[in-house]
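Structure (tokenized):
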């Protein structure tokens, strides 16, 4: 036992982590977290996560996808049970998180051009089926042009940095939204209460899903580091 502990203490960390590949990604993860401090920049970049959240949550709820909506519009629901609503929001967040894991898998394989192509295809499909607002169309067209430009001109370095940064943004926003959901489920529990004794417990499903979502979001970050950056 003592020998095992000594071996663990003297183990080279590079065995578990490829610093040459991981360091740039950690820098972009830190940058994505840092820009979240600035409301305007955060609002522009978080639209990627918002789009994924809208699509998966609306599919889970079985309702027509109406395009980009902010948090207040997502929470302004008049129909359905608390459990169904909490489940649909949980599926939406989980879908966005799985998308982030998929993007980092492509990053680990250095498929940077494919990442931009996937994001362009998502925007094109969103414009065709889901986005129905002027602001949504404007953002989607501008984003397609921004992603297509380095692909057209063949700027490999720019493609790599844009792909890693956007993947980092989607992952960081997924984790931050998980924290936000947990905070909201606690602070708004009085507003979520219904009438009668059992109505007081209607906020519990939202809190349970929020705790599960936060746990899986943190685990997803750990999984990405251990599976794709080692």
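Design, position by position:
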């Amino acid at each position: 036992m003592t020998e095992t502990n000594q071996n663990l203490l003297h183990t080279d960390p590079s065995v578990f982590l490829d610093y040459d590949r991981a360091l740039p990604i950690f820098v972009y993860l830190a940058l994505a977290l840092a820009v979240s401090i600035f409301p305007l920049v955060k609002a522009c970049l978080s639209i990627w996560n918002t789009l994924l959240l809208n699509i998966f949550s609306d599919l889970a709820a079985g309702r027509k996808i109406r395009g980009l909506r902010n948090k207040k519009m997502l929470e302004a629901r008049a129909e359905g049970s608390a459990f169904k609503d909490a489940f649909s929001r949980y599926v939406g967040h989980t879908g966005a998180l799985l998308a982030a894991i998929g993007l980092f898998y492509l990053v680990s394989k250095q498929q940077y051009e494919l990442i931009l192509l996937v994001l362009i295809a998502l925007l094109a499909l969103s414009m065709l089926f889901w986005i129905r607002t002027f602001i949504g169309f404007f953002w989607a067209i501008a984003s397609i042009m921004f992603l297509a430009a380095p692909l057209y001109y063949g700027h490999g370095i720019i493609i790599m940095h844009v792909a890693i940064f956007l993947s980092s943004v989607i992952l960081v926003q997924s984790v931050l939204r998980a924290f936000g959901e947990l905070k909201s489920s606690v602070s708004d529990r009085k507003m979520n209460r219904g009438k009668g004794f059992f109505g007081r417990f209607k906020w519990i499903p939202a809190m349970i899903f929020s705790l599960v979502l936060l746990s899986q979001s943190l685990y997803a970050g750990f999984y990405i580091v251990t599976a794709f950056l080692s």
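Reviewer-requested clarification: The two ends are 26 Å apart (CA to CA). Residues 68 and 136 are 6 Å apart (CA to CA).
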